[in-house]
Write a structure and sequence with these properties.
By secondary structure, the chain is α+β, with helices and mostly antiparallel strands. It has five helices and twelve strands.
């Protein structure tokens, strides 16, 4: 919520006032006023510069919600103390924080925050878990490390094994086909970079010379494969397919 200020700029129209060049060479500016009458053009320039800076500063603080007024020096000092305290909590060029004057920033002491360079965290910091196979400079969560570690695997019917080289083998069995048809198989995990090969074969419910079906693999993606069950002249249903995929 905006605050307020009663600080005003002196002589905003710059009437009867030295310009910058005249003020720069004015001996009163460089040597100070002597006894006698202070030339109005010189005084107006001095008062203009001082009041312009003060009014701008007051307007800035007012815009941040502070009430800035010359009617109460104690309240003005309190507002300025608050600003200076927050500035004290900002690390300097050597990443040191003025611990003596720093109190709270955002409800926390300055020591609560970590420097951008060489940060030191306490507690249990968290980061997003990257996709399996990610190889960048981003921070790794323990979940990523565990999934990426050598030997990461799932020994389920539809499972996978991550090899030390980063190669991933995946396998599984489809649900029943009741006739010729197609199924999209979602892989247990997505390959991070590429799927290199996939194969499928018919899995029968028993030895039967009349079975004449075969599985076709198509539409290989990082996260799925298509398995189409084709029937020959002799058919016996239902049937399933076993599939295998490899990638990295």
């Amino acid at each position: 919520m905006p605050g307020s200020t009663n600080f005003q700029q002196h002589n905003p129209t710059k009437a009867n006032q030295e310009n910058d060049a005249a003020y720069t060479s004015d001996p009163i500016r460089s040597n100070g006023a002597v006894a006698g009458i202070y030339p109005s053009a010189s005084f107006n320039k001095l008062a203009y510069q001082l009041s312009t800076f003060v009014a701008a500063f007051a307007q800035s603080l007012s815009g941040k919600g502070y009430t800035i007024s010359d009617s109460d020096i104690a309240a003005l000092k309190t507002a300025l103390d608050s600003v200076v305290t927050m500035v004290d909590t900002i690390p300097n060029a050597t990443n040191a924080v003025n611990a003596t004057n720093a109190t709270n920033l955002g409800g926390h002491a300055a020591s609560y925050f970590a420097s951008l360079a060489d940060p030191h965290f306490t507690g249990i910091p968290t980061v997003p878990t990257a996709a399996l196979g990610t190889n960048t400079t981003q921070a790794a969560s323990t979940a990523f490390v565990q999934a990426q570690s050598v030997g990461s695997h799932s020994l389920a019917i539809n499972g996978y094994q991550v090899l030390p080289s980063g190669m991933i083998m995946q396998w599984g069995t489809t649900t029943d086909y009741s006739g010729e048809g197609d199924k999209t198989i979602s892989l247990p995990i997505s390959f991070p970079n590429a799927i290199l090969n996939a194969q499928a074969t018919t899995l029968t419910y028993g030895i039967n010379a009349s079975i004449d079906q075969f599985a076709q693999v198509h539409d290989l993606t990082l996260g799925s494969i298509g398995v189409y069950m084709q029937a020959g002249v002799a058919t016996t249903w239902p049937q399933r397919a076993c599939w295998f995929a490899i990638g990295y």
